[in-house]
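User: Hey, my collaborator sent me this sequence without any context and asked if I could get a structure. I don't really work with proteins. Can you help?
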Amino acid sequence: MKFDKPAGENPIDQLKVVGRPHDRIDGPLKTTGTARYAYEW
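Assistant: No problem. I've predicted the 3D structure and written it out in structure-token form, which is a compact way to encode the shape of the chain:
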């Protein structure tokens, strides 16, 4: 495979999601001990 030009930005990079903080909806459940896990079903 021959690359004649540098790779451009892909759609994932354009979303600017990776490397940014995001709210975790499971955080409060896990820290209070009320989260349900697969082995508890």
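In plain terms: The mean pLDDT is 84. You can pass these tokens on to your collaborator as they are.
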